[in-house]
Amino acid sequence: MAVLLQLREAYKRFGDQIVLDNADLSLVDDVKVGFIGRNGAGKSTLLRVLLGEDELEQGEIIQHPSLRIGYLRQHDPFVPGESALDFLMRDSEQPEWRCGEVAGQFELKGEYLEGPVKSLSGGWQTRVKLAALLLHDPNLLMLDEPTNFLDLRTQILLEHFLREFRQAALIVSHDRAFLKATCSQTLELSRGKLTMFPGKIGPFLEYREERREHDRRVNATVAAKQKQLQRFIEKNRANASTASQARSKAKQLERLQTTEIQTDEPTVYMRAPRVEPRQGTVFRCNELAIGYPKNRVADDITLELEHGQRAAIVGDNGQGKTTLLRTIVDSLEPLDGEMKWGYGVEIGTYAQHVYTSLDERHTVIEHLEYHSNTDTTRQELLAMAGSLLFRDDQINKKVKVLSGGERARLCMAGLLLGNANVLVLDEPGNHLDVETVEALAEALQSYKGTVIFTSHDRYFMRRIATCVIEVRDGSVKNYFGDYDTYLESVEKEVDDGERDRAAQSGGKPGSSKSSSSKTSAEDYRKNVRDQRKTEKEIKNLEKKIARLDDDKRGLNNQMLTETDPDAAMKLHEQIKSLEEELATAEERWLELSSDE
């Protein structure tokens, strides 16, 4: 077991904060490590140090001679106009067939591989970046929040990839379910100290809490003993006959020390809006159509939600989850149908289009005072602000100088301090660390109102959801099962897809092929040419089918008004000929589409 990267006695300050304080770390060649810590603890700074992009003030970094780091960056590395395939070839300097082969492991093909990469969603762009990493043949992956903006299907695909990746990895994430599925060890950065735990995140969090509870009990015992000794000393030190005993007790008192309890931040506490529970229907829609003037996302939506439900909106990225949420809160006009909220409903919204439009003239504390209940105390305001990382002088910062993440947290704080009896939340866990997500989950579980939300965090979904609404293939429907049932169905789809691809290529799911079984460059280029030819034929057929439909409709309209029997017979024959041609085209289209 070789040590790929080692950090020794590292000291690093960032402004007034000590990020690393005599910290040590060893990363070995076959272990995947989940890296956690509170927001602002310095995780990104440590990654920059390990990558050589930032320097230590003291200490050293030792690299194994064979170290090859693959770093998944959050920034955009793409050139305008280039395709995913162009990027992979430019970034890796590998031939087209090899880039296409690796891209296939992440289901990148067709328009996703050959269309403009900048037009892809964040999740698909992450797949492109992961394929690029693999082409560099790294033996240590560093992934910084890889699940941000990834839908469930892509997360599962990434998990499968990491489980089959036989090298080391250091993964920064707030997603507890993802870390549990991929990492065998846990690293925590807290108050400048690095702690490596030889187990998964769940056992680590339990161990950490047990250790803190043990320290609290020991400290309570020590404090009681200190008081007892102090009373004896004060009572007996002035008496000549007991002065020597008092001096002995004083030495014992000096030796008694309490243990510093390692908590890197005050305990996070959140409270949900205080509302009265209600009965009956909170929201109803009938034959609703959502989308945009030139893009109908979903239609024929009929839903009914009851007061007190916590409805999880699920589905792949790009299917329309956010469009649905924006429509039901009147941020987006419905294309058709009707929807209605129950009497006395007050809606609170957390979404990107909301937290980017905060009043920039307010300070943090002024925003919270403005949006909170009238009976909210100053202490409650400060406690909520502190839970979301606004402490001390930060509460007087103007909204206009806050980062996107800070604005998002401020919006969340104001929402929770308000009096909304319906919360509509789009990705509420983004910008929050593990402890804060846990506190938010507990607050929402005790909330007496209704919650409609989306999230990519499976742990959070399991904790909160009482019903599931699926957005898929142009429809929105109640999913008849709980979130775990939905999760199992998606995992099965991903597994089936991987088995099918493996069967087609003659390999095993997720395995790396030997050089003798790899697709040759010639075969790959032939496959690409065939695929392009098929796609072109499909597009031409679609145009032909649309034209034939229009022609048939026109002839049918003529038949309705035609009075001459001979002319009507001629029209009938033309329609029959069109129908035969249309049937042939549709049959060919179905054949090609099923082969894709």
Automatic annotation (TrEMBL):
UniProt cross-references to Pfam families, sorted A to Z: ABC_tran (PF00005), ABC_tran_CTD (PF16326), ABC_tran_Xtn (PF12848)
Biased composition annotated in UniProt, kind: Low complexity: 510-519
Compositionally biased intervals (Polar residues): 238-247
CDD domains cross-referenced by the UniProt entry: ABCF_EF-3
Keyword line: ATP-binding, Nucleotide-binding
Region described as Disordered: spans on this chain: 235-254, 492-567
A GO MF term: ATP binding
Domain ABC transporter: 5-223, 283-498
InterPro entries from the UniProt entry: AAA+_ATPase, ABC_tran_C, ABC_tran_Xtn, ABC_transporter-like_ATP-bd, ABC_transporter-like_CS, ABCF_ATPase, P-loop_NTPase, Val-tRNA_synth_C_sf
Bias type Basic and acidic residues, positions: 520-554
Name of the protein described by the UniProt record: Putative ABC transporter ATP-binding protein YheS
Organism expressing this protein natively: Novipirellula artificiosorum
Highest classification ranks of the organism: Bacteria, Pseudomonadati, Planctomycetota, Planctomycetia, Pirellulales
Gene: yheS
